[in-house]
Amino acid sequence: MAEAVKKSARDDVEHREVLIIGAGPAGSVAAQRLAEEGVDVLSIERREIVGNPAQCGECIPNWGEVIAAFDNVEKDPWLRSSFDFPDRVRLARLDWMRVFSPSMKCWGFELDAFSAHRPQFDGMLAERATSAGAEIRVGTALRKVQKQPKLGRELYLTTNGTYTADYIIDASGSLAQVARLRRGKDATFRPSDQIPTIYAQVEGDLPDTFDVFLGAVAPGGYAWIIPKGETANVGLGVAAGKLGEVMLKQYLGEFCQKMDFEVLSWGGGWIPMGGPVKRMVDGNVLAVGDAAGLVMPSNGGGISQAMISAKFAADAILAHRADGVGLEIYEKMVRRSMGKALRISLRSKRLGNAFLGGDLRTEAMMRILGPIGGLKRAMECKRPLWLF
Ligand SMILES: Cc1cc2nc3c(=O)[nH]c(=O)nc-3n(C[C@H](O)[C@H](O)[C@H](O)COP(=O)(O)OP(=O)(O)OC[C@H]3O[C@@H](n4cnc5c(N)ncnc54)[C@H](O)[C@@H]3O)c2cc1C
Description:
Distance between the termini: 70 Å
Strand content: 25-35%
CATH topology of the domain at 2-91 and 115-193 and 273-346: FAD/NAD(P)-binding domain
Number of strands: 16
Bound molecules: flavin-adenine dinucleotide
Order of helices and strands: HEHEEHHEEHEEEEHEEEEHEEEHHHH
């Protein structure tokens, strides 16, 4: 009897070649790439609808912006086509950014991006993955990882079944759920310096530029307005510990009131701003996107890094599967491509924290940096000044 129970419990475990946790941009890009190469892929997603609710400012970079920021991607035809987005997800062109000082003096520069509704954008990427043959199970959350040393495996327990896999991709976003469940508080594998953000979808007299506001409006961070056609995504992120959740909402409410915007809905989320995790590969687990801390610390953008890293992770799995190449190649590819930009961005963020303080100091620094292109370079994750 006991043997029968054990056996049936074991039979309930579903084995897949690749199990991906999370169907955000990173999860879906990895799933698409692997499925196109004939790999058996299951992606599990805790939400009922992929991408919904959005936790984003919803500014998506075009390919031109991507190849200007990162190395070793320009000649990758697969990535090139991955960044070829259909018109239906493009709501408004974002080809100009303005950065405002506390006194509302502004500096502008070119941008190559567009705004989108994240549920539509993430849904489009998920559709590409399923069309390629990947399976996505929504409403399925990873809850626990259980080691079974005698059987030489790890069980992935979810709200909808138990799984084993040859390879695991942690695409679960900033909280890096696989690393959390396998490694607890070990900072080697989890992104750090999570900053709280809040945003609102608004109506009103909207700009047609991506506007950023520095100073007391968002202590240690910035407020943004990203036009989306009829509406705009307006939000703010602040340095960790500067404001509680209630204060954050109050600050954004006051900002919207000042701009005469009508708030239609609220959202929020965490952005890992501490730079890449120390190790992105842990046994057969590869961390991608936000789970690997690949967000630009100076501006909070992470969608392109999520997509690129996911493609690299899929390539590493394909190489391991075909020729036994060590999975560590994945981390090398990521660092070769985006390591420099992320390092400079982290330095810019630290300089910002050190030099931008209250309104007076922020105003003074911006008036020094603005005219010599320092703000543009900091936003683009290039060296803010020749000095640094
Ligand atoms: C408020 C805000 C504004 C932002 N604005 C921008 C912007 O304008 N432009 C930009 O480029 N970046 C922006 N970012 C960052 C960007 O959203 C992320 O970098 C990007 O979404 C990372 O993609 P990802 O696939 O790694 O993670 P995510 O998009 O976070 O996807 C992770 C997925 O995993 C799922 N998941 C989590 N836990 C589990 C679990 N236990 N089981 C199963 N599924 C799970 C989640 O539901 C989610 O669908 C913003 C972030 C925030 C919070």
